[in-house]
Amino acid sequence: MTIAATMIGFARTLRAAGVAADHERTQHLLRALEHLDVTDRQGVYWAGRLTLCATKDDLPRYDRCFEAYFGGMRAGRAQVRTVTKGLSAVDDGDGEGRGRALRASASELEVLRQRDVTSLSEAERAEVHRLLALLSGRRARRSSRRFRTARSGPLDRARTVRRALKRGDVAELLHHRHGSRPRKVVLLVDVSGSMAAYAETLLRFAHALVRSEPGATRVFSVGTRLTPITAELRHRDPGTALREVSRSIPDWSGGTRLGEELRYFLKRHSARGAITVIASDGWERGDPALLGEQVARLSRQAHRLIWVNPHKGHAGFQPLTGGMRAALPYLDDLVAGHSLAAYEDLAERLSGERRGTGGPVHA
Asked: Quick one: 352 exposed, middle or buried, by C-beta within 10 A (0-12, 13-18, 19+)?
């Protein structure tokens, strides 16, 4: 893997964790590395930190991602001067070996990002789950009804009049704008037997979403019955949260009646204005026609409707199951859900940084 590909992959990991490592910042990093010794981890660390981070909140996320991506490193602040001046880092005699180790660890993580979670060893799966916990649950913003003070925009007549009465003259016209809030996400996770191999990873992704935006995320498990599990996923520790979830789900690894459960959801709950995500392989035991009807209703209510099918990440995938064929005409996006990279992609879609097809999905 080239240095450019390595660092672009690192920037992608940072964006998934909520760091503003956009294309422009990544190009600044690549230009900085042209003047540095890329075998020096401290030089790479500070070059990335100075070019890819935008706010103070980015720094702890950057450190965690750097340690995960490059195998860990703690740099001294004295190295900043070296990087900012664009000088070559001092080689301690083992630079070539350390450079190979840096590239190898990054390359290994890039391979791990793409692998199906069902093919991972216990240690690899634990690493993927640890990286999932770092994912940002940032959301696309939507306009709220509440107003906030602004320098320009519509005239705030009430505040302008109150200030004029208080001061005795109209010395200033005051303005306001509608505020914004994160768009809600409703996540429906299939925990039936056919989804058992992917259910834990899906729920860990759901935990990251709930932890990031607890007030704008609702999660349900679906199988033979609908179970709200948002409260259980609010626990800080992912392992504890999943143990609480497993105790609350009565139909774990059972059958799938998505049509009936979606009908129950639409009767008791609402996804109005929310980005709604259904995570399922589409193996429907009930009537596919009923599922199609309920997905159609849900698509009219939701802001966007995304279906996550783990099998879409496999070569030759075709949406041939009865449930998928019934739902397909009403989906805005059909995405994979089999790997860390797939969940990073989904997180970007929820944040509004990446858009889907913009229309119904076709086979």
From this structure: middle
